[in-house]
Amino acid sequence: MEDNGNVLAFGCHPDDIEFMCAGTLSFLRKKGYKIHMATLCGGEKGSMTLSKEKIRSVRLRECEDSAAVLAASYRWAGWEDIEVEFCHELRVRVAKVIREVNPFVVFTLPALDYMVDHEETSKLVRNACFCASVPNFDTEDVPPTKGVPYLYYWDAVESKDWLGRRTPVGFYVDVTSEMETKVKMLSCHRSQRDWLLAQHGIDQYIEYMKEWDRRRGKEAGVGFAESFCQHLAHPFPQDNILKSILGAAVIGVS
Description:
Elements: E1 6-11, H1 16-20, H2 22-30, E2 34-41, H3 52-69, E3 73-79, H4 88-101, E4 105-108, H5 116-131, E5 150-154, E6 171-174, H6 179-187, H7 192-199, H8 205-220, E7 225-230, H9 241-246, E8 250-251
Parallel strand pairs: 1-2, 1-4, 2-3, 4-5
Antiparallel strand pairs: 5-7, 6-7, 6-8
């Protein structure tokens, strides 16, 4: 697919993108690309005290605030936390977002991660990148894209799958210079500090994110890094366009 200037990061829940690939998005923004952000779910289960309607309202507003840091668009695909499955309705919803944005580069969750919502979203986005260009796949009158985009999977949470195995790395992006922006974006998700402390036993989630990126950065020989794997199955693009765009910031291309 030709470079049309549109880049999409498609997460499952609010803050997925900010934790795992906001530094790379910041780099791409500086290179002149239009950034689009989307989540399948609205964060409805992310509170111990608020109703799902109230916490959704808070979390969607936080998503919009974060996207604004990169002058990015934000879309909620209209689904709920812990309800994600690979079904026709969600295949249509996700493909509709792909068609609306018409990205030539897509980032999403890895195939193996710590929770099923993430894994199912990964599968849905992968499917949508393929189906969005199929004219007879109906997405409520949104026209098809003109090709299959580059697809990249960001790192799993804590860089391990659900059996504790280290997840693979295709390449790293040195985001040391982008950490201030990444912190600013993740800080927009203020509601999650209380949730992560109560549910995950994690306090100071900003520092937790930094530690993940610091570990990947050590592997790459830089201060902070985000890691990715590229989807290379037929008929997806085979060259690593990020290396062409970001140059020396991309390390260890497989």
